[in-house]
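Backbone shape codes
____________________
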Amino acid sequence: MTARSPQRQQLHDMLDPVVSAAGYELVDLSVSSAGRRSLVRVTVDADEGIDLDGVAVVSRAISTAMDAEDASFAGPYVLEVSSPGVDRPLTEPKHWQRALGRLVTVPIGDAEPVTGRVLAADEGGLRLQVAGTEHSYDWASVGSGRMQVEFSRPDQPAADDDEASLDATDDDAADEEE
């Protein structure tokens, strides 16, 4: 099934309300041949994200809908339901809104890509904090962005903080004993 095939569109039209009823958004749908079966990949998301329990709920709802609707999808299939993941491209304002507070890299116009933290994303454009300075960009100049993986975000205490304070306490106690 090609990306624009009538069969894919029919499947998309059938699954979109199913995913919405579960409280999520149908982000992407692809169907490819996998031997005698079809591989149906469905990507779902929400403003607050989706966890494994949410993926399971959506997967059951989609499977039930596909099994009940013989005409829109013929033959055996394998269903994969997932979230977009951290490496998904940020292309629409809603993607950027879901990335608030996150570190991203994005091409701006013809210039080199910039890396900054998403401060806001609305109908007017994107606001990033780049190297400590706030910058605003209109949507026409913003390219497809990517979130950067951060192991220790600034708004979260580092795991070493507790150990460092314990070490300092141990050092103080050792000084008192001497």
